């Protein structure tokens, strides 16, 4: 046994639970305090709580879930924003008269769309036990988080009994179940519980005492429950701005939508643009072609959380021969999912809803007594699926909503067929006109590759392909290089052609042009038969001064004129 409040006990409990990030440090401390610092018992209780949250899918609750939004709008349970008692304890208001739980899960519960009863909307104030449990866990979890942030000693509950009948207390099996849940999984969190607006008769206190004894609540916890006859007694625990107006304070209770907007901002959830997972995962065109098999791994809670879930409730199904079995059924827009019970992890039977399906009312002689049958005809199942509802009203609801789903698929199939035919006609018209269909996106043509760089030509081969050089006649005298006298040019006024257009240099007829200097001073020697051209070494011309611009160069002195 560890000493109270010792760090060694807390460390030992964390290692015994071995669930990182599953519980806060404050919850470990509360578990030790509840079990008189017995690490083994505290670890077993925390593990049991974690398993319970996981199995009921209560471990990751948020305002983005449609079922929570529906329950919050009923306003029977609400955490008061920005309101605490004098000890900084968060305040939770429970309006008992607004809470109408169903004693059985057999009733049809509206999903995102209200169930219709031959055109009349069903009362949407009733709550299924699973939905109510989800809201209670969500609100208590929010209150515990606020309590830990403020380091408060607990949570203060205001239980408003106004308008409560006697039958609600005497038949409070649902309330008893929720109290047992709070005692088992959320211990050491109650600071005070104020019962308000109850009748002066003693039956309310007696019924409450009976419930607490049934739960085995300790004397210390019972002392925290206070029956308030005069609302002015609350002024000892609350400041006026934190106490609701109907109880003598100044706090204005929020409407459901206003409360959801504030909480959504805290959780960073966009209520107007919530991502519809079922639309992107389960209701695409490819998914609908699976005929409902996309829901093969979905539990009841998962499909209930989807926005487009239509109906859910208990229905009888003829299994084989004379045997009828009661199942929990969830209607999706594209499939009817039949589970073993309301806690089913995967559907036992999946009936696809397609444009070829049909639903009709029917009577079965061997059906369970007091039920009303209907037949669901699908392709590939001779005789269809034989089902029976618990009442004629429920059968009408199933027939109406399933028929609406079938009609929706028929309209969608008609649109798809029309689009395919229209596209086929357009293709035929293009073929008749022999035109190019520019609507078809052609593949991108890669740019042409640049040609490879040419290989260098060897020097020997380069010399063989050199252009022939002009030859000088053998009888022509050698040409002497002519040197210009710059002084003569300067003194001869006729040779001064500066600024005048220069005439081209002319040669006598039959006189070959003098090879310009610097091109190739060597002439190609005549080759004898059988000889190969010799490789010549490159010769670099000697530098020469450029001629004087504007000067007309005279003929060489030894040149012959005709």
From TrEMBL:
Residues 522-539 have a biased composition (Low complexity). Residues 522-562 are annotated as: Disordered. Signal peptide: none annotated. It comes from Aphanomyces euteiches. Residues 540-562 have a biased composition (Pro residues). GO terms for molecular function: phosphatidylinositol transfer activity. Residues 308-407 form the PH domain. Pfam families: CRAL_TRIO, PH. Transmembrane segments: none annotated. Residues 68-255 form the CRAL-TRIO domain. This is PH domain-containing protein.
């Amino acid at each position: 046994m560890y000493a109270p409040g010792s760090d060694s006990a807390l460390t030992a409990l964390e290692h015994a639970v071995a669930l990182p990030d599953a519980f806060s440090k404050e919850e470990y401390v509360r578990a030790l305090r509840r079990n008189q610092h017995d690490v083994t018992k505290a670890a077993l209780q925390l593990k049991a709580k974690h398993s319970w949250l996981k199995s009921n899918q209560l471990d990751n609750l948020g305002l983005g879930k449609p079922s929570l939004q529906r329950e919050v709008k009923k306003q029977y349970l609400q955490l008061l924003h920005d309101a605490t008692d004098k000890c900084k304890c968060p305040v939770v208001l429970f309006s008992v008269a607004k809470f109408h739980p169903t004693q059985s899960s057999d009733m049809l519960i509206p999903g995102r769309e209200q169930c219709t009863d031959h055109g009349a909307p069903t009362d949407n104030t009733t709550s299924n036990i699973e939905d109510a449990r989800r809201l209670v866990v969500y609100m208590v979890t929010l209150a515990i988080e606020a309590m830990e942030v403020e380091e408060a000693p607990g949570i203060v509950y205001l239980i408003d009994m106004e308008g409560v009948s006697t039958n609600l207390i005497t038949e409070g099996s649902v309330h008893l179940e929720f109290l047992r849940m709070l005692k088992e999984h959320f211990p050491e969190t109650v600071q005070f519980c104020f019962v308000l607006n109850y009748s002066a008769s003693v039956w309310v206190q007696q019924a409450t005492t009976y419930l607490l004894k049934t739960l085995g609540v300790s004397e210390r916890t019972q002392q925290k429950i206070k029956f308030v006859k005069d609302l002015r007694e609350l002024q000892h625990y609350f400041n006026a701005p934190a106490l609701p107006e109907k109880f003598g304070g100044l706090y204005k209770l929020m409407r459901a939508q206003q409360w959801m907007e504030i909480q959504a901002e805290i959780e960073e959830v966009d209520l107007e643009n919530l991502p519809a997972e079922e639309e992107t995962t389960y209701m695409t065109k490819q998914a609908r072609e699976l005929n409902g098999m996309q829901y093969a791994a979905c539990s009841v809670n998962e499909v209930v959380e989807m926005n487009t879930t239509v109906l859910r409730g208990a229905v009888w199904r003829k299994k084989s021969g004379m045997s009828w079995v009661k199942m929990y059924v969830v209607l999706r827009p594209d499939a009817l999912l039949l589970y073993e019970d309301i806690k089913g992890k995967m559907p036992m039977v999946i009936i696809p809803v397609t444009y070829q399906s049909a639903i009709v009312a029917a009577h079965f002689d061997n059906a369970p007594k007091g039920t009303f049958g209907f037949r669901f005809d699908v392709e590939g199942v001779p005789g269809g699926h034989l089902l029976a509802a618990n009442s004629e009203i429920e059968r009408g609801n199933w027939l109406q909503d399933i028929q609406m789903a079938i009609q929706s698929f028929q309209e969608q199939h008609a649109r798809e067929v029309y689009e395919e035919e229209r596209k086929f006609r357009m293709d035929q018209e293009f073929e008749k006109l022999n035109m190019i269909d520019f609507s078809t996106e052609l593949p991108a043509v890669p740019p042409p590759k640049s040609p490879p760089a040419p290989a260098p030509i060897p020097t020997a081969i380069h010399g063989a392909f050199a252009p022939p050089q002009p030859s000088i006649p053998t009888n022509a005298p050698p040409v002497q290089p002519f040197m210009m006298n710059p002084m003569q040019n300067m003194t001869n006024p006729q040779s001064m052609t500066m600024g005048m257009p220069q005439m081209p240099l002319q040669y006598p007829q039959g006189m070959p042009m003098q090879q310009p200097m610097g091109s190739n001073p060597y002439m190609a020697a005549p080759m004898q038969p059988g000889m190969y051209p010799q490789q010549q070494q490159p010769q670099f011309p000697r530098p020469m001064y450029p001629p004087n611009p504007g000067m007309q160069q005279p003929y060489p002195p030894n040149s012959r004129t005709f």
